[in-house]
Design goal:
The complex is a heterodimer of chains A (474) and B (247).
Chain A lengths: L2 E6 L8 E7 L5 E8 L5 H4 L8 H6 L6 H16 L5 H33 L10 H7 L1 H22 L8 E2 L2 E2 L5 H28 L4 H6 L6 E6 L11 E5 L5 E5 L8 E4 L8 E4 L9 E2 L2 H7 L6 H11 L14 H20 L19 E8 L2 E9 L5 E7 L1 H4 L1 H15 L7 H12 L18 E5 L5 E6 L1
Parallel strand pairs in A: 6-11
Antiparallel strand pairs in A: 1-2, 1-15, 2-3, 4-5, 6-7, 7-8, 9-10, 12-13, 13-14, 15-16
Helix pairs in contact in A: 4-5, 4-6, 4-11, 5-6, 6-7, 7-11, 9-11, 10-11, 13-14
Chain B lengths: L2 E6 L2 E6 L4 H7 L23 E4 L6 E2 L10 E3 L3 H17 L14 H9 L15 E2 L5 E4 L8 H10 L4 E4 L6 E4 L16 H5 L5 E3 L12 H11 L5 E2 L4 E2 L2
The chains are: A alpha+beta (474), B alpha+beta (247).
C-alpha cells in the first residue's frame, strides 16, 4: 500500500513550505515534493504602479534580502531611464550588496543550519535550534549574531535602516556615504574577519563526520548559473550571466538582459513557486542550480586573495576540476562568499573615491523595457519590467533566486528521502534531515523572518484512501 | 470690529466677530485634527475631523467653518468626539489604498500623522480596495488616486491662488474623484500652468513629484503665506504707470 508523508511546515527556513514524501507499497520512497504554500502576487498587483516606486515595493518581498530586490529593481529602473549610474553610486550599491551577503549567509549558517551541523542532524529537537545552540555553544551562537549584526549595520549606515531601506533608486542611490560612517565600517571589519575564519575551520573540520550527508544531500549533476565579471571572476552585482554544465563547460555567457533567450519558466499545480529551467534542454531536464555553490562553480576565480585561497580548496571537492556537485557544500560556499564579501568591503572602504556627492542621475522614461539582475545571497535574481511612456508598469516578471533552485530542491528532497527512509523506519530525525536538504539552499520563501525557537511541525502518514495512518508532532 | 466672548472647554475666550471657532481654538493653543483645512485657502468643512460640541445643541459642528458667536460654549475634546474622529480616519483609510510603507510621503503624511496622533492602530471597517489609476502623464507631477482623501485643497489652491482652476471634483460620494480639466489626462491639460501648488498643499502622497521614491517626497507650504501676504499688501500692483513696483 502506498503512503504519503507530509512535513508541514518545514522549519528553520525563510517562509512557509511543506514537503510530501510518497511511499510505494514496499515503503520505499517513490517521489518527494517541496511545496511552497504561500501566494504573494507581486507580479500582478504592481501593475499600474510606477517603476520609480518598485525598489521600495519589491524590497518588501523579503525581510532578509530586501537589498537584493532593491538593487535588482533599481537596476531595471536604470535601464528604463536609460542612464548610467554615477560610478560612486555603483560602488556604494555593491558595498550594500556585499553587506547583505554577509548578514544573510551568517543567518543561514549560524542561526538556521548550525543547530543541525553542531548538535547533530538527529539530536533532540527541543535543543536543535538557535536557543539550544546558545545554551550548548554560546561562543558560536554569539559569533553568528555578531557577524550578522556587522552586515546589518553596514546596510543601516548606508541606507538609514537595516531592513527595507529605500536607498537605491533608479539612477543611483539617495544618499552618499560620509567619512565618519566609512570609518565606522572600517572599525567593525577585524572582528568580522576573525569570526569567518573560525567558522571556516569549524565547518571544514566537520567534513569527515558528514561523509554520508555529503553524498546524499543533493549530490547530482546539474547546470549552474551565476554572474561573473567580464574577466570571469566572482560577481554579485553586475557583469555577465554564465551557465555551465555538469562538467564545467560554459554553455552561455551573455549580458543578463538577454536571459529570456535561454531561461524559461514552468509551473506545477502543487506549488506556488515557479520552476525556471534552461530552455535548450527543456523542462525538467534543464534543471540548474544558483546561489553560493553555483557562483563558485561558474566563476574562474574569486578575485580577492583570501577567498581565492579558499576557492582552491573548495575546487578539490569536485571530481578532477569539475564543478562541486553536492548541495551539502552550499554551506562551505556560503562561508567563502562571506570571506570574499568582507575582503571586498575592506577594499571599498579604502577607496578614496567612495566618499563624496553626486550619487544619482536623473532622466525621464527613455526605454519602455528594463531588466535588472543581481546576485541575491540565494542566487540570481531577475526583475523584468515593461512600462508605458509615463513610467506606469504594464508588465512585471520576477524570477526570485530561490525559484531558480526549485527543481534542484525537489531533487534533493527526494535523494535524501531515498537515502534515509527504508521500510517503515520513520523518525523525527530523518524528517529533519530532509528539511536540512531544503535549508542547504537557504530558500527565502517570503518576506517574513521567523522568530527563533520552536516552530510547530506536524507530519502525517496518509494512506491511499486518505486515512491518517500515523502522526508525529513536535 | 466687535469683540465677542465665548467659552471653550470651560475657559472664557474673546475673539473678533467673524472669526471661526477653529481660529480662536488655535489662538488659545487648542489643537484639533484637520485635513481639508489649510490656512490661506477658503474653508470647506469637508473632512469633519474638527467637529466640536456646542452646548445646547445635539448637532456637532465643524470648527473650521462655524463662526464664533457671543455666549457660545463649546467642548473640543470629549469621548464622543475622539471616537468620531478616529472613526472618520478609519473610514478614510478603508476607502482607498493607503499603503504607508511604500508611499512617497511615508513619515511626512498628514493623514498618517493624524492617525498616529489619535492612536489609530487598526481599521475596523472592510477595506474597499478600489482599483484606481495613477495619472503620470504630466511631465513633472503625478496623481495617485489611491492616496487621495478628497480634501480638495488642490482644487481650492488652483482656483483661488493660481487662478487656473485646472482641478475639480467629479462623481458623487464614494465614487468622487479629483480631475484635471474635464477629466482629461493631466499632461494634456491646457489650463494647468505646471506651478505645482496643488502638489505642495496635498496632505498625502496623492499628488507628488514624478520620480519620487518611497518616503522621499517633501512638501513646502511656505509659498502660500508669501503669495497671500503679498496679495493682501498689494505688493505686486504696478504703480506710477508701471515705472515702479510696490515694495
Amino acid at each position: 500500500m502506498s503512503r504519503t508523508v507530509t512535513i508541514d511546515p518545514v522549519t528553520r527556513i525563510e517562509g512557509h513550505a511543506k514537503i510530501t514524501i510518497h511511499l510505494d507499497d514496499a515503503g520505499r520512497v517513490a517521489d518527494a515534493r517541496f511545496h511552497v504554500v504561500e501566494f504573494r502576487g507581486f507580479e500582478k498587483f504592481c501593475i499600474g504602479r510606477t517603476f520609480w516606486e518598485m525598489p521600495g515595493i519589491t524590497a518588501r518581498i523579503c525581510g532578509i534580502c530586501p537589498v537584493s530586490h532593491l538593487l535588482a529593481s533599481a537596476k531595471a529602473g536604470d535601464e528604463i531611464l536609460g542612464v548610467r549610474v554615477p560610478p560612486r553610486a555603483e560602488k556604494l550599491r555593491r558595498l550594500m550588496n556585499w553587506a547583505q551577503i554577509v548578514q544573510s549567509h551568517a543567518l543561514s549558517f549560524f542561526h538556521l543550519s548550525a543547530p543541525d551541523l553542531l548538535l547533530g542532524m538527529e539530536s533532540d529537537p527541543a535543543q536543535r535550534n538557535i536557543m539550544g545552540l546558545i545554551q550548548q555553544r554560546p561562543d558560536i551562537a554569539r559569533n553568528g549574531i555578531r557577524l550578522r549584526q556587522f552586515g546589518q549595520e553596514v546596510i543601516r549606515l548606508l541606507g538609514g535602516r537595516s531592513v527595507h531601506p529605500a536607498w537605491a533608486v533608479p539612477g543611483g542611490v539617495r544618499e552618499s556615504l560620509t567619512a565618519e560612517k566609512r570609518d565606522q565600517i572600517r572599525r567593525m571589519l577585524p572582528e568580522a574577519f576573525d569570526i569567518i575564519e573560525l567558522a571556516l575551520d569549524l565547518l571544514k573540520d566537520s567534513f569527515d563526520s558528514f561523509a554520508n550527508e555529503i553524498q546524499s544531500y543533493g549530490d547530482f549533476p546539474s547546470l549552474y548559473m551565476g554572474l561573473v565579471t567580464p574577466q570571469g571572476g566572482l560577481e554579485h552585482y553586475d557583469g555577465l550571466l554564465r551557465v555551465v554544465d555538469a562538467d564545467g563547460k560554459v554553455l552561455e555567457e551573455a549580458p543578463p538582459g538577454e536571459f529570456r533567450r535561454f531561461i524559461a519558466e514552468a509551473v506545477e499545480p502543487w506549488s506556488y513557486l515557479k520552476f525556471p529551467y534552461y530552455k535548450p534542454l527543456g523542462y525538467p531536464a534543464g534543471m540548474y542550480r544558483v546561489g553560493p555553490l553555483a557562483r563558485l562553480n561558474v566563476c574562474d576565480f574569486a578575485g580577492t586573495p583570501r577567498a581565492d585561497r579558499e576557492l582552491r580548496q573548495f575546487r578539490r571537492l569536485g571530481a578532477r576540476g569539475k564543478p562541486v556537485t553536492s548541495s551539502f557544500h552550499y554551506h562551505y560556499a556560503r562561508l567563502i562568499e562571506i570571506l570574499f564579501a568582507l575582503e571586498k568591503i575592506e577594499e571599498t572602504v579604502e577607496d578614496p573615491t567612495i566618499v563624496g556627492d553626486h550619487v544619482r542621475n536623473y532622466a525621464s522614461v527613455n526605454q519602455e523595457y528594463g531588466v535588472g539582475v543581481s546576485e541575491a545571497p540565494r542566487g540570481t535574481l531577475f526583475h523584468e519590467y515593461r512600462v508605458d511612456g509615463n513610467g506606469v508598469l504594464t508588465y512585471v516578471n520576477l524570477i526570485i533566486a530561490t525559484g531558480n533552485n526549485n527543481l534542484a530542491m525537489n531533487r534533493t528532497v527526494k535523494q535524501i528521502a531515498q537515502a534515509y527512509i527504508n521500510g517503515n523506519g520513520l523518525s523525527e530525525g530523518i524528517l529533519n534531515r530532509i528539511e536540512h536538504g531544503i535549508r542547504l539552499y537557504d530558500p527565502c520563501l517570503s518576506c517574513s523572518t521567523h522568530a527563533v525557537g520552536q516552530m510547530p511541525m506536524h507530519v502525517q502518514l496518509i494512506g491511499p484512501d486518505g486515512q491518517v495512518l500515523d502522526e508525529l508532532r513536535r | 470690529m466687535a469683540v465677542i466672548t465665548l467659552t471653550i472647554n470651560d475657559e472664557l475666550v474673546s475673539g473678533r466677530e467673524g472669526d471661526t471657532l477653529l481660529t480662536l481654538m488655535r489662538e488659545k493653543g487648542i489643537e484639533v485634527p484637520t485635513l481639508c483645512h489649510l490656512d490661506g485657502l477658503s474653508p470647506r468643512g469637508g473632512c469633519r475631523l474638527c467637529l466640536v460640541e456646542v452646548q445646547g445643541s445635539n448637532r456637532l459642528v465643524p470648527a473650521c467653518i462655524t463662526p464664533a458667536q457671543e455666549g457660545m460654549s463649546i467642548v473640543t475634546h470629549s469621548e464622543r468626539l475622539i471616537k468620531y474622529r478616529r472613526m472618520i480616519l478609519e473610514l478614510l483609510f478603508s476607502e482607498r489604498n493607503h499603503i504607508c510603507a511604500v508611499c512617497v510621503m511615508n513619515g511626512r503624511c498628514e493623514l498618517q500623522a493624524e492617525a498616529a496622533a489619535i492612536g489609530m492602530d487598526h481599521v475596523r471597517y472592510d477595506y474597499l480596495t478600489p482599483q484606481l489609476p495613477i495619472d503620470a502623464s504630466h511631465q513633472r507631477f503625478a496623481v495617485d488616486h489611491n492616496r487621495c482623501i478628497l480634501c480638495t485643497r488642490c482644487v481650492r489652491v488652483c482656483d483661488e491662488v493660481e487662478g487656473a482652476h485646472t482641478w475639480d471634483v467629479m462623481g458623487r460620494g464614494v465614487n468622487s474623484r479629483v480631475i484635471t480639466d474635464l477629466n482629461q489626462p493631466w499632461g494634456t491639460s491646457k489650463s494647468c500652468t505646471s506651478c505645482g501648488k496643488c502638489v505642495q498643499v496635498c496632505p498625502t502622497g496623492a499628488l507628488h513629484l514624478k520620480g519620487s521614491t518611497v518616503a522621499e517626497m517633501r512638501k513646502d507650504r511656505d509659498f502660500l503665506r508669501w503669495i497671500l501676504d503679498g496679495r493682501e499688501k498689494k505688493q505686486w500692483i504696478l504703480r506710477n504707470g508701471g515705472q515702479e513696483s510696490g515694495r
